[in-house]
Amino acid sequence: MSITDFVSANQVTPQLADLLIQRAEAFKGGATPNLPLPMYAANLFFEPSTRTHTSFEMAERKLGMTVLPFDPRQSSVTKGETLADTLRTLAAIGVQVAVIRHPVNAYYQSLLAEHLPLHIVNAGDGAGQHPSQMMLDLMTIHEEFGHFKGLKVGIVGDLSHSRVAKSDMQMLHDLGAELTFSGPKAWYTKEFEKYGPYEPMADIVPKVDVLMLLRVQFERLSEAEKAEFSEETYHERFGLSDQLYPKLKKSAIIMHPAPVNRGIELADDLVLCPQSRIFQQMHNGVFMRMAMLEQVMMPQATEGSRVHAFTH
Ligand code: CP
Fold it and tell me: Which ligand 1 atom is the nearest neighbour of the CA of 48?
């Protein structure tokens, strides 16, 4: 079965992940897209975004698609039109794929249940899933190590609010990586336990191949959490500081989905250090999103894909 809507890590088998990485690497190497054109896309971002929004738009343009501008603040959503009716409207006008970021967890489930006449790609739902970030993270790790099995990956930071952590842990676990988590203990909730143990940051740093730091999502913290939060204390206990950095293996890489809170998740001067792959992740994101859009629009291009049916 093919993916015709790309919404969650639950849909991606290791085989499909491998095929998408191969296709994204081919695009990075200059492979020509072969989507039948014209094709029309709209990107509906109901939460702020720099990377995901512009990266999807760049991917759509590189695939030769025409991108219709959509600004939720200027749309009839402000008059009470539902998201489903907005998508029906776009489909009626000729849009074939909608890339959506939305603050509501799993907003896409009700849309999929309505069998709307266009493809949906999830660009991040609340604290739920972020499948395109997951896929570009996999590509970046694969580019570095060539495999996932046995790789030690530390995921550190604002776990409970992070859709990146949730998508990435599922897929990395399925691909055979060994996961460990750190960050404020209260954010290591039950759902993480089956994917790996919690350990202090100082214990994780010397042993990992991949150190994946997560942004503290201040916009999702409660007033009480914000009042209690100290940037200095967080950086000291859970950040990659200048003191901790030399303890990383020389072969290890630092990842962060960004935007980065400099001086909190990692020291200011480490954002661009030799072991950082943060901007490489963003660069790879364009090619991975091309592969994902191609998979959705023309699944036969990703030959031999085998995916789980999405159940809702
Ligand atoms: N990583 C990520 O999703 O960044 P944006 O919020 O800028 O899209």
Answer: 6
In the predicted model, is pLDDT for residue 206 greater than 90? yes
Determine if ligand 1 sits within 6 Å of the CB of residue 52. Answer: yes
Distances (CA, A) of 97 to 24, 28, 72, 219, 305: 19, 22, 16, 29, 20
Atom of ligand 1 nearest to the CA of 47: 6
Q: Is 50 in the pocket of ligand 1 (CB under 6 A)?
A: yes
258 lines ligand 1 (CB under 6 A): yes
The candidate with the shortest Cα–Cα distance to 170, out of 203, 209, 138, is: 138
Q: What pLDDT was estimated at residue 2?
A: 65
Residue 34 binned pLDDT confidence (cut-offs 50, 70, 90): confident
Q: Is the CB of 133 under 6 A from ligand 1?
A: yes
How many Cβ atoms are within 10 Å of 113's Cβ, its own excluded? 10
How far apart CA 231 and CA 229 sit, in angstroms, is 7
Does the pTM of the predicted model rise above 0.90? yes
The reply to whether ligand 1 has any atom less than 6 angstroms from the CB of 257 is: yes
Reading the block at residue 289, the tokens are 């999103």
Q: Indicate the top mutation candidate among 133, 168, 219 to test ligand 1's pocket, ranked by most ligand atoms within 8 A of CB.
A: 133
